[in-house]
Design a protein that fits this description.
With 229 residues, the chain is an alpha/beta fold. It contains six helices and eight strands. The longest helix has 27 residues.
């Protein structure tokens, strides 16, 4: 059995585990097996958000470290199993670019979507691809979560919003020393419990469709983080 080369694009760095792992679909191709999508879920959650300096830094500094730990415990409690990984794309896909293969793979093999919403989220064709791809599956697999308040956001989510972090999107280590950080942790716990409930009720894996964006395809560079729980 051949192993995927560590220099290929099929290998994705996992900073949590501090080791190299082959991308599941590409590795299967490198090993000479079939080229079809896998028959099991790979990710617990696809984290969808509009990239920007503040939101991207806040996610890495504050949201992801706490959310992944809380979600791991909730999955153990509600699903009676070990948790998989989170899917996080850290690069913005610009107009005119096509959605990368690894992003498509993430959309197809994640159990649910946590949509981290801001007014600009719904102006990104790529965020809409992620949003619509999960909404068309049904089963309540989209968990709307507010990062920035706005009429557009409220109109889109209606009464389906499950968490509001608009008072907590503060970057820098100083945030951890404020009273808001305690409330932020409580909101993370509530969100993790809700997401685990959605994960527990996700349908059996299928070759889910991914919505097509209305742009001219051009291959983008992507940087994916697979975050172990």
């Amino acid at each position: 059995m051949r192993r995927a080369s560590s220099g290929s694009s099929s290998v994705v760095r996992n900073p949590t585990w501090d080791r190299w792992r082959p991308h599941p679909v590409d590795a299967r191709r490198a090993w000479g097996q079939d080229n079809s999508w896998g028959d099991v879920y790979v990710y617990e959650v696809f984290l969808s958000y509009r990239r920007g300096v503040i939101h991207s830094q806040w996610l890495v500094e504050h949201f992801v470290p706490l959310f992944k730990d809380r979600l791991r415990e909730e999955i153990a409690e509600q699903c009676d199993r070990d948790a998989g990984e989170l899917f996080l794309d850290v690069n913005e896909v610009q107009p005119g670019m096509s959605i990368g293969d690894k992003v498509v793979d993430g959309l197809k093999t994640a159990r649910c979507l946590v949509a981290l919403l801001s007014p600009s989220y719904f102006r990104s064709p790529w965020c809409l691809v992620e949003w619509d791809s999960f909404r068309t599956r049904g089963h309540g697999l989209v968990v709307p979560t507010i990062l920035s308040q706005g009429v557009t956001v409220r109109r889109a989510v209606g009464d389906t919003m499950w968490a509001d972090f608009s008072d907590y999107t503060i970057i820098g280590e100083g945030f951890k020393k404020t009273e808001r950080y305690v409330a932020f942790q409580d909101e993370i716990k509530r969100l993790a419990k809700r997401v685990a409930t959605v994960i527990a009720s996700a349908p059996a894996w299928s070759n889910f469709s991914v919505c097509n964006p209305p742009v001219t395809p051009v291959a983008p560079a992507t940087s994916i983080q697979r975050i172990g729980l």
